[in-house]
UniProtKB/TrEMBL annotation:
<keyword id="KW-0418">Kinase</keyword>
<feature type="binding site">
    <location>
        <begin position="54"/>
        <end position="55"/>
    </location>
    <ligand>
        <name>NAD(+)</name>
    </ligand>
</feature>
<feature type="binding site">
    <location>
        <position position="154"/>
    </location>
    <ligand>
        <name>NAD(+)</name>
    </ligand>
</feature>
<comment type="similarity">
    <text>Belongs to the NAD kinase family.</text>
</comment>
<protein>
    <recommendedName>
        <fullName>NAD kinase</fullName>
        <ecNumber>2.7.1.23</ecNumber>
    </recommendedName>
</protein>
<dbReference type="Pfam" id="PF01513">
    <property type="entry name" value="NAD_kinase"/>
</dbReference>
<keyword id="KW-0067">ATP-binding</keyword>
<dbReference type="InterPro" id="IPR002504">
    <property type="entry name" value="NADK"/>
</dbReference>
<dbReference type="InterPro" id="IPR017438">
    <property type="entry name" value="ATP-NAD_kinase_N"/>
</dbReference>
<dbReference type="GO" id="GO:0003951">
    <property type="term" value="F:NAD+ kinase activity"/>
</dbReference>
<feature type="binding site">
    <location>
        <begin position="124"/>
        <end position="125"/>
    </location>
    <ligand>
        <name>NAD(+)</name>
    </ligand>
</feature>
<comment type="function">
    <text>Involved in the regulation of the intracellular balance of NAD and NADP, and is a key enzyme in the biosynthesis of NADP. Catalyzes specifically the phosphorylation on 2'-hydroxyl of the adenosine moiety of NAD to yield NADP.</text>
</comment>
<dbReference type="InterPro" id="IPR017437">
    <property type="entry name" value="ATP-NAD_kinase_PpnK-typ_C"/>
</dbReference>
<keyword id="KW-0521">NADP</keyword>
<keyword id="KW-0520">NAD</keyword>
<feature type="binding site">
    <location>
        <position position="162"/>
    </location>
    <ligand>
        <name>NAD(+)</name>
    </ligand>
</feature>
<feature type="active site" description="Proton acceptor">
    <location>
        <position position="54"/>
    </location>
</feature>
Length: 265
């Protein structure tokens, strides 16, 4: 599903665009970096430098997904799982030596009870969530084969390796190494089957959720930021044609972060 490799000196940086979260610490950092290195529009830059936290990085990846330009994040937020350490000095050299991680987002195709359909992309996960006090009832098919006739739960999600440390982790799902070629299917507060904890799926799998009794037990579907209410069926598959490039310092790359996260007490 994803892979990483060192681009080293092969990357020649001619122009940098800086984007930042609305926080003072991120805006101050952007002001100083623009003054030091210059700045061009994100629409014409060779590389985009995102200043903020993981949430802002996710926004940036979505905003410039169509450009296919590499994005290098520096942490001016809290956790910063997708970000590099913030340092003002030697930024062009750091970018030139960075490793690239290529991501393929998930495509959500959501069908509603009203007969409408909507497609959206998710870099982290696609999640289904109950809308009322009634638990959701979901039927799950993988590549056309019914694997679970009825999952009674608060919801369920399918995540990428990059998203496996986000909502998936809080739902007790597995952390997936980059380049694993896997997606995680994780239930959210499952009631029946009580002991089912989810599944690991090949990145090329197609996952279909059918909502049982959607009138009585309405469910919403969310692809990162895009929410569709009152869904009856949700189809999830990897969009292999869409490529997203993240840049990481060699000593602090995403694969190492994912590995370290699995040993946190």
């Amino acid at each position: 599903m994803t892979g990483s490799h060192s681009i080293g000196k092969q990357m020649h940086i001619h122009s940098i665009a800086f984007v930042a979260a609305d926080t003072k610490i991120a805006q101050d950092a952007m002001y100083r970096l623009k003054h030091r290195y210059g700045h061009v529009s994100p629409e014409t830059a060779d590389v985009i430098v995102a200043l903020g936290g993981d949430g802002f990085m996710l926004e940036t990846l979505h905003r410039y997904m169509g450009r296919k330009v590499p994005i290098y994040g520096m942490n001016r937020g809290t956790v910063g799982f997708l970000m590099n350490e913030f340092r003002e000095m030697d930024l062009p050299e750091r970018i030139a030596e960075a490793q690239t991680v290529q991501l393929h987002p998930l495509q959500m195709e959501a069908h509603t009870m009203q007969g409408e359909s909507m497609c959206a992309l998710a870099i982290n996960e696609v999640s289904l969530l109950r809308e009322t006090r009634q638990a959701a009832k979901l039927r799950i098919k993988i590549d056309g084969v019914e694997r679970l006739a009825e999952l009674v739960c608060d919801g369920a999600l399918v995540c990428t390796p990059a998203g496996s440390t986000a909502y998936n982790l809080s739902a007790h799902g597995p952390i997936l190494p980059m380049g694993s070629g896997l997606m995680a299917l994780t239930p959210i507060s499952p009631f029946r089957p009580r002991r089912w904890r989810g599944a690991l799926l090949p990145h090329g799998a197609e996952v279909v959720f059918d909502v049982q009794d959607p009138q009585k037990r309405p469910v919403s579907a969310v692809a990162d930021y895009t929410e569709v209410r009152d869904v009856s069926r949700v189809i999830i598959r990897e969009d292999s044609n869409m490529k997203i490039k993240l840049l990481f310092d060699p000593e602090h790359n995403l694969e190492e972060r994912i590995l370290k996260e699995q040993f946190v007490e």
